[in-house]
């Protein structure tokens, strides 16, 4: 079995809980929140990790390794990944991202304090050696997927494809319900699908921001939530941050996945619910 340690991706305390082999559950927590993980060695060289997190961040930088493909599907919430300390990309509900391990130089974060999804780590050499006959019989070629993951200028992101939903959602159910046979089937089905994707068409996908744009959105968010009794207008925000209203609205929507108005409406509702529970 491959020896890749996927837990190196998490900067948080992890505590194993009772699980049935080959599945292993974990409770995870740090100063920003908590959550649960479920891992499974699906094949030799293929590991699946289900994330159910209510945290702002828990990611950690890992060494670059072009021999391991990381495939991540976002079921709920939002994920920000900082790449090469130059720009950020964003993954939201229904998105699938593909890259090699360690291409990003810093860990990811969850701007809306929520992330749920499934990640696969494929150690290509081990997987081919141990399961080459299965891959050949099913007509699965990993070379094109690996080439795209290595050569793509950023990360390949497939936004909201119905075919992916039909594959991954049952895979998540299989992970939660400890059904390794169904999980194996869904991994092979996903690889068959990805083997037919035109990755070149994904090079200019949107939802990327440079550091200054991402920092602007986060500064605005911190200002807005620091005093919920204040109702700052776009004119006031534009004047305070010396940025156009269009720039503020665009950056905010990319980082947080909604307009400022909708975000604050949801934030106020969540805060009211939290305070109500604390007084019960």
Describe it for me?
The relative contact order is 0.13. Strands 1, 2, 3, 4, 5, 6, 7, 8, 9 and 10 form a 10-stranded antiparallel sheet that branches. It contains 8 helices and 10 strands. A hairpin with a 3-residue loop joins strand 5 (65-83) and strand 6. With 280 residues, it is of the alpha+beta class. The N and C termini lie far apart (50 Å). The radius of gyration is 20 Å and the shape is globular. 39% of the residues lie in helices and 28% in strands.
State the shape. globular
Low-confidence stretches: none
Q: Compute the average pLDDT.
A: 88
Percent of residues in beta strands?
Answer: 25-35%
- Derived from helix and strand composition plus strand pairing, the structural class reads alpha+beta
Q: Count of DSSP E strands?
A: 10
Number of helices: 8
Helical percentage: 25-40%
Distance between the termini: 50 Å
Query: What order do the SSEs take from the amino end to the carboxyl end, as H and E?
Result: EEEEEEEEHHEHHEHHHH
Primary descriptors:
28% strand, ten-stranded antiparallel sheet, 280 residues, alpha+beta, 10 strands, 39% helix
Topology:
Elements: E1 13-17, E2 23-30, E3 33-43, E4 46-54, E5 65-83, E6 87-92, E7 96-101, E8 115-123, H1 124-138, H2 143-151, E9 156-158, H3 162-176, H4 180-194, E10 208-210, H5 211-226, H6 234-241, H7 245-256, H8 260-279
Antiparallel strand pairs: 1-2, 2-3, 3-4, 4-8, 5-6, 5-7, 5-8, 6-10, 7-9
Helix pairs in contact: 3-4, 5-7
């Amino acid at each position: 079995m491959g020896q890749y340690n996927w837990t190196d991706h998490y900067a948080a305390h992890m505590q194993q809980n009772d699980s049935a082999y080959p599945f292993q559950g974990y409770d995870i927590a740090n100063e920003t929140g908590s959550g649960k993980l479920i891992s499974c060695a699906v094949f030799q060289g293929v590991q699946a990790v289900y994330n159910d997190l209510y945290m702002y961040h828990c990611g950690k930088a890992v060494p670059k390794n072009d021999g391991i493909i990381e495939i991540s599907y976002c079921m709920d919430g939002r994920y920000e990944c900082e790449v090469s300390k130059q720009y950020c990309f964003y993954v939201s509900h229904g998105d699938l991202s593909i890259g090699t391990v360690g291409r990003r130089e810093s860990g990811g974060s969850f701007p809306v304090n929520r992330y749920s999804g499934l990640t696969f780590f494929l150690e290509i050499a081990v997987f081919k050696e141990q399961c080459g006959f299965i891959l050949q019989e099913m007509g699965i070629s990993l070379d094109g997927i690996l080439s795209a993951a290595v050569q793509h200028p950023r990360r390949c992101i497939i936004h909201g494809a119905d075919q992916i939903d039909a594959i991954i959602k049952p895979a998540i159910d299989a992970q939660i319900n400890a059904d390794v046979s169904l999980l194996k089937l869904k991994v092979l089905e996903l690889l068959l699908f990805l083997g037919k994707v035109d990755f070149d068409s994904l090079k200019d996908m949107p939802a990327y921001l440079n550091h200054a744009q991402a920092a602007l959105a986060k500064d605005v968010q911190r200002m807005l939530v620091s005093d919920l009794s204040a109702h700052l207008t776009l004119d006031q925000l534009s004047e305070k941050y010396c940025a156009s209203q269009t720039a503020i609205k665009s950056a905010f929507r990319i980082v947080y996945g909604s307009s400022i108005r909708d975000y604050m409406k949801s934030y106020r509702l969540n805060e009211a619910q939290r305070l109500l529970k604390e007084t019960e």
